[in-house]
Amino acid sequence: MSIAARRPRAVAVAAAVLSLLAAVAGCSRADRAGSAVPPENAAPAAEVRLGYFPNVTHASALIGLDKGLFTKELGSTKLTPVQFSAGPEEVSALLGGSLDIGFIGSGPAINAFAKSGGENVRLISGATSGGAQLVTAPQINSPQDLRGKTVASPQFGNTQDVALKKWLADNKLSDVGVQNIDNAQTLDQFRQGRLAGAWLPEPWASRLVHDAGAKVLVDEKQLWPEGKFPTTVVLVRTEFLQQHPQTVQAVLRGVLAANDLAATNPAAAKTAVNTQLKTLTGKELSPEVIDRAFTGIELTTDPLASRFPQLAQDQVIAGIERQAPDLKGLVDLTALNAVLEAAGKPKVDDGGLTG
Fold this sequence. Notes:
Blueprint: H1 3-25, H2 29-33, E1 47-52, H3 59-66, H4 69-74, E2 78-83, H5 87-96, E3 101-105, H6 106-115, E4 121-130, E5 132-136, E6 150-153, H7 159-170, E7 177-180, H8 183-191, E8 197-201, H9 204-212, E9 215-219, E10 230-237, H10 238-243, H11 245-264, H12 266-281, H13 287-295, E11 297-299, H14 308-317, H15 334-342
Parallel strand pairs: 1-2, 1-3, 6-7, 6-8
Antiparallel strand pairs: 3-10, 4-10, 4-11, 5-8, 5-9
Main location: membrane
InterPro entries: ABC_SsuA_sub-bd (IPR010067), NrtA/CpmA_ABC-bd_dom (IPR044527)
GO molecular function: ATPase-coupled transmembrane transporter activity
């Protein structure tokens, strides 16, 4: 073959190589991590491990489990519920690959994304807005009354811990001690007079009010526009989302069904939550406590994504992180909006955080 005959083939090969290199160079972090279009032949997962807390702020999960809503939507996929007591533990499970999807607080969701360099998790839905309060001893009438005293939050770096420490910083209360204590122990220590108060999710804020004589000093709703802020969201491992989009949509249909039940039949929703809490903790809530807890929350699949940049900055103000992470790529609402569209419901906004 002559040189003239070989030249077109060489040019074609070179062009193909350059095209490939350009494509590789053009890939962003989000492209590599989770924005790729899932394969058309992606099969449902054999199993999905679903994390949640035994809290009223995780009512969507508790209702879905009690009423078999997730199981119904998942079909042949095995559902394995996994209980956690605080967000940082669940983050470790997600990043370690022992959990697939989790109901989790907004703070730990941000941390999971940041710790993995924006690679390993995606926020795919909201679950609960509201449902967190700073409750205190009756004699505490203002922020200044807390000086020199001790208050509690569930765990270092969790959603309520960040909210508490940010509020203390805003009010220049550097002399207030913060202890990270399990919610049940917080109730006991408050009764014993060892704590002046605690920033807690539901139902624990209501338990301190009804069972231990606390009063509300701050309802976190007061600190956010329209009283809306994401207390609980749904996070998924990026790899699981890529490999099993059908299973992810099935779980989200279960979330939507649980929220719809709560909206149309609140009594049945409360009973379902109480049944699960009794199974998980050995004790159900009194009617007064669960009624009060439900008045403070809104079950919604909207993750209120536009709030997340402020939540990330709050971690810095609270002294939890040195700098706020870049949250571009955190949110992927493709599966959720497909589910909402199929149900005839409005789509939700990604707050500009989709990669």
